[in-house]
């Protein structure tokens, strides 16, 4: 079967990882890359030995599919251009700045029978893929995604930058029927919110407590789930899942005092650890060739963005 011709638009921090992965995927032939910054374009084109296009339209024309890793404010405009020209699109998260833009892109892709995938790379984290097998009617979900400040992402706040990953994971895990949303946030370094905390109550009764920060002097990416017979701890960075289960609990009466004893054991789940970005690309290509169905349909991506915007509304009014 002939290889799919893939181009990369935007070769900054995330774009370089996309190039690094796609050049090593046998099913793809890299047409080249484009970046608005000619120095960056020259650097990446040289580092990976791929053509650097000075004209984005030419790269789009020569490709079957485009990976878009430009700042979020340009996602809509560039993804629309690619879809209009009949090209499949893998656009970085968040899909767009607004819900209306996302809806328009999803409808356009459907109308033209094109694949439009959002770069929610955590979906392809080995631990997240395993999680679906162990989660059963959770009561409480706590997600924490905390990072030190990095001035690179200045066009959107932490909700669209980081929290969107956890909104995507949580809603794909337990559904998106939400009874209430409450949230608060504050800015630390930018004009947007750099810290945000949201509490979502789902129709199932489950409560999700989601915190995101880009003002923390440590990098933490964890998800914990409390359900009837287990407490599950997922670490996105190490791709590990630990499940705590209660074995027994008892009160012990000694001569001096009453003691509480609790016995639990921890199960370590076997996780197949691959590069999640590579898995993301393989899924994108397999959806284009029809070998796989998108693991998350477009309308769900729109819904996740809607939830993010209801959190932003609570924060900014
Ligand atoms: N999936 C993830 O985990 C993850 C992680 C980081 C960033 N991202 C996303 O990737 C996107 C890019 O973020 P980044 O950290 O790589 O930013 P960045 O600033 O490092 O890179 C953006 C690149 O796009 C180029 N660019 C700007 N405007 C352009 C335009 N109109 N046309 C072509 N090129 C243009 C810039 O010159 C720069 O090289 C953002 O949407 C961000 O949310 C996703």
From TrEMBL:
GO terms for molecular function: nucleotide binding. It holds the Pfam family GFO_IDH_MocA_C3. It comes from the Bacteria. Residues 151-231 form the GFO/IDH/MocA-like oxidoreductase domain. InterPro entries: Gfo/Idh/MocA-like_OxRdtase_N (IPR000683), Gfo/Idh/MocA_Oxidoreductases (IPR051450), GFO_IDH_MocA-like_dom (IPR055170), NAD(P)-bd_dom_sf (IPR036291). Gene3D superfamilies: Dihydrodipicolinate Reductase, domain 2 (3.30.360.10), NAD(P)-binding Rossmann-like Domain (3.40.50.720). Residues 4-120 form the Gfo/Idh/MocA-like oxidoreductase N-terminal domain. This is Gfo/Idh/MocA family oxidoreductase. It comes from Leptonema illini.
């Amino acid at each position: 079967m002939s290889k799919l011709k893939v181009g990369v638009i935007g070769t900054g921090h995330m774009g370089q990882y996309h190039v690094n992965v796609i050049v090593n995927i046998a099913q793809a032939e890299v047409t080249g890359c484009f970046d608005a910054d000619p120095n960056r374009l020259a650097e990446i084109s040289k580092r990976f030995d791929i053509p650097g296009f000075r004209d984005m339209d030419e790269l789009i024309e020569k490709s079957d599919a485009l990976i878009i890793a430009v700042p979020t404010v340009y996602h809509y405009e560039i993804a629309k251009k690619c879809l209009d020209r009949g090209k499949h699109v893998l656009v970085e998260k968040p899909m767009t700045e607004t819900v209306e833009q996302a809806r328009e892109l999803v409808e356009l892709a459907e109308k033209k029978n094109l694949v439009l995938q959002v770069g929610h790379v955590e979906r392809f984290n080995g631990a997240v893929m395993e999680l679906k097998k162990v989660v059963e009617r959770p009561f409480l979900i706590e997600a924490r995604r905390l990072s030190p400040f990095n001035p690179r992402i200045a066009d959107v706040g932490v909700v669209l930058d980081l929290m969107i990953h956890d909104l995507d994971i949580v809603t794909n895990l337990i559904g998106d029927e939400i009874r209430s949303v409450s949230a608060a946030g504050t800015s630390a370094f930018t004009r947007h919110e750099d810290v945000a905390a949201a509490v979502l109550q789902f129709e199932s009764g489950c409560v999700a407590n989601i915190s995101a920060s880009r003002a923390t002097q440590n990098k933490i990416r964890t998800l914990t789930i409390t359900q009837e017979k287990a407490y599950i701890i997922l670490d996105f960075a190490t791709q590990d899942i630990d499940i705590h289960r209660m074995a027994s609990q008892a009160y012990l009466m000694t001569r001096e005092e009453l003691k509480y004893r609790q016995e639990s054991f921890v199960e370590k789940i076997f996780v197949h650890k691959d590069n999640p970005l590579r898995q993301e690309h393989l899924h994108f290509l397999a959806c284009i060739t029809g070998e796989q169905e998108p693991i998350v349909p477009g309308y769900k991506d729109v819904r996740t963005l809607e939830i993010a915007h209801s959190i932003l509304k609570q924060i900014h009014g």
